[in-house]
Design brief:
seven-stranded mixed β-sheet; binds pyridoxal-5'-phosphate; Aspartate Aminotransferase, domain 2; globular; two-stranded antiparallel sheet; transferase; PyrdxlP-dep_Trfase; alpha/beta; Aminotransferase class I/classII large domain-containing protein; 9 helices
């Protein structure tokens, strides 16, 4: 009986603000960028709770399609099957960059550098934050540093997809070293997070989208506009999800307030 009461409490379905639970957003940003990340303390990070990794990635792609000046998005070859499906739906043309060398079953680093080196200035580049899905091949820290330097020298925009934080090394912190190196020098980026696997929240669809940007009118509008734009978008996704849950989840019907 006590466990039933506990369970009942954990299923409170109070309405959250449109951008999600503020504490969750802050902790989620800290999990990927680190406790001491100055970007969070200085309010340069906007985080919104989204529908798991897929929803976070989709919102980020749509946001860039609407607000970023360069439209082409580069994805690694190969990559998670939904990447090349989601990006065109968001309205961005997709190109690929080499990642895998089947002959060595390792990284095709030369191909990767050549492809990103010939990408147009400012292009968006999808980077698997760690434990690359499909192939589990990640660059070493030294190679990441070379990728970072190349990307920054060409103004390429990093969009991290973090669906397996802790799966590569066993450590939540160690797995995000690359992402943290990218933002340590102050460069802007987007990062989508999924908690399906590392928190075993497969069915709950828990995730977050982080936008790190400086106050600049070159690439982005001001943070306040950012927040508003994201609120609009998340509202749309949230609504869709509510309908899906109602249609499919007969074990736990939810009360929806509209
Ligand atoms: C690289 C990558 N991104 C995003 C996702 C989607 O995550 P979710 O199932 O939480 O939507 C996955 C799922 O396997 C993935 O491998």
């Amino acid at each position: 009986m006590p466990s039933l009461a506990l369970h009942a409490q954990s299923r409170l379905k109070e309405y959250l603000p449109i951008i999600g639970l503020p504490d969750f957003n802050k902790l989620s940003a800290k999990l990927i960028f680190g406790d001491a990340s100055p970007t969070i303390e200085e309010n340069l990070m906007t985080t919104v709770q989204c529908l798991s990794g897929t929803g976070s990635f989709s919102v980020g792609a749509e946001f860039l399609a609407k607000h970023y000046h360069q439209r082409t998005k580069y994805i690694p070859q190969p990559t998670w099957g939904n990447h090349p499906k989601i990006i065109p739906i968001a309205g961005l043309p997709v190109k690929t960059y080499h990642h895998y060398d089947p002959s060595t079953r390792g990284l095709n680093f030369q191909g990767l550098l050549e492809d990103l080196g010939s990408a147009p200035i400012g292009a968006i580049v999808l980077l698997h934050a760690c434990a690359h899905n499909l192939i589990g091949v990640d660059p070493t820290l030294e190679l990441w540093e070379q990728i970072r330097q190349l990307m920054r020298s060409k103004g390429l925009f990093p969009f991290f997809d973090s669906a397996h934080q802790s799966f590569a090394s066993g450590s939540l912190d160690a797995d995000q070293q690359y992402v943290r190196i990218f933002i340590a020098e102050g460069g802007e980026c987007l990062a989508a997070q999924s908690y399906s696997k590392n928190m075993r929240l497969y069915g709950e669809r828990v995730g977050a989208l982080n936008i790190f940007c400086w106050i600049t009118d070159i690439a982005f509008p001001r943070p306040l506009d950012l927040q508003q734009n994201l609120e609009d978008k998340v509202f749309i996704y949230g609504d869709d999800n509510i309908m899906n849950l109602e249609a499919t989840n007969d074990m736990s019907p939810r009360q929806v307030t509209r």
